[in-house]
Each structure stands twice: as C-alpha cells, then as structure tokens.
Amino acid sequence: MINRIKLGSISLSYGAITDKFLTKKDKMVDLDLTEHTIKTITTDVEYLNIENHAHPHHHQLIYSLKGTLRIALENDDFFLPEGHIAVIPAGFYHRLESKNIRVKMFLLYFPKYVDQRFKILNTNDFILETIRYISKQKQTITILGDQGLFNFILAFLDLPDLAKGHELKLKGLLSPKNERLRAVLQYINQNYMLELKLPEVAGLFGFTERNLSRTFKSENLSFNNYLNYQRIIRSIELMSDNKDNIEQISYEIGYNTLSNFSRTFKKFTGASPTNYIKANQTRRVGKDKA
Fold it and tell me: Is the pTM of this model over 0.70?
C-alpha cells in the first residue's frame, strides 16, 4: 500500500472559510437532506470542472475511483490521487477540477454535527472494504428508517484510522505572499515539461538567482522541489488515464532519463512508478464497478 505522498500537513477547523471569501460564482449547494440523513452517490464525469461551492449542512467524503482531482480551497490547492479519500467539511467553499478525461467518484454526504476537518487520506484494506460495503447499500440512509446502518457509517467516519491517517498535501502554495513569486510558479506550472533552470527562470522575471532562491525559501519551497512536484503530479494524472508506458510518461513531463524520473517519483510517493500503478489497480472499489 502506498502510504506516503507528502509535502506538509493541514488542519483547518470548521468555519475557517467565511462569507468574506465569496465571489459571485460562489454558492451554497443544499442537498435537500434532513440533519439525520446520509446520502451516497457514484458519479462518472468527463472533463470535470465544478465552480466554487459549499454544502451548508453536510460534510462531503470523496473517494476517487477513477482519475484524479484538484481541490482548491481559499489559499491552498490540493491533489487527490486515484484511490484516495478527501473529506471536505460542511460550509467549506471549494472548487473541483480534473485534468483527466474521465473521473469516477464515490461521494458520501453526512451530518455536520460529526466533528470533521479538511483532510486527504490514503486508504487501507479496512477502509476500502467498508467503502465498498457502503456503496452497495441504499443511496439515502436515515436514522429513523435505517438506524443500524446509519450508526455504523457514523462510527466508521469517526474512527481514529480515518481521522488520523496519512494526510497528503501535495501542493501547499496556491497564493504566495510574494506577487512576483506567484508569476514564477504559474510559469513553472505551464512549462514543467521543459528543461527549466533556476538562473534562466530568475532572469525572465527580474530576479537574480540568489534572490529567487531566497524568495522560494521564504515560502518554505525550493525551485527544484516545486518543479519536480508539478512533474510528478502530472505523471500521476497520466497514469490515471491508463497511460502505463512509464518511459514515455517520463519524457513527456520533462525528465531526460527513466531512472531520474523513477528516483524522483519514489521520493515523492514512496513507491516506484510500476508499484504505484499496481497499487492503484487494487484499490478501486469494486474494481471500478461501484
């Protein structure tokens, strides 16, 4: 099991994102569910792109069956690999986007009185089997009509293994304090497949090499780590689109040799590209038939 893809950690309390962050596109999406109701949905979407929204009364659990997601909160952008879980608290405004052609997700909405914070987690065998079991039950579960199942799901969601798992923060900087650095990061995001070098990129944006390095450091980043991060994220997205020619992927995202890509991939994920692909194939609920 893959138990390591980490550049940091996050702990956001419920209510941390308030109305002051809203734009005209932001909206509350009320699921029209009572307080004591759990709702499950399995979706299959092409070219997913959902604008900023929140669910006022229910937390949202997202399990990525097929494809990857980019989840944007207020000032942070997170990456949800295939076969992993995201928990988004009620009231948290977020955007969902995928670079994959197809995204299949198992969604579970549960009452906000269950204490939750935003997190992205790996799965283990117990979590995977429990999600598989829940996905086979009725879609709307109430405490009055399905008390045993309702309480079972709430107990599962409150488990320490779920609440304190290996949390993944694959991108920790969406809006850096330094405006000039923001432009540099955007340039890297768009050109990661090129042979980018610190001195050349510094010159493009009016930095000296030393000053740009210091600016990255002030945001707890480094040029090479951020560049490699973008490349590895893109490689995972390509793998989720059933592209399993690892050598071709390595060249497509900017590595000159397969060995360099494999070494960097393992540094960020804890697994070789081949083992990562195999692990994802075994973690899909119902083998992508949920």
Answer: yes
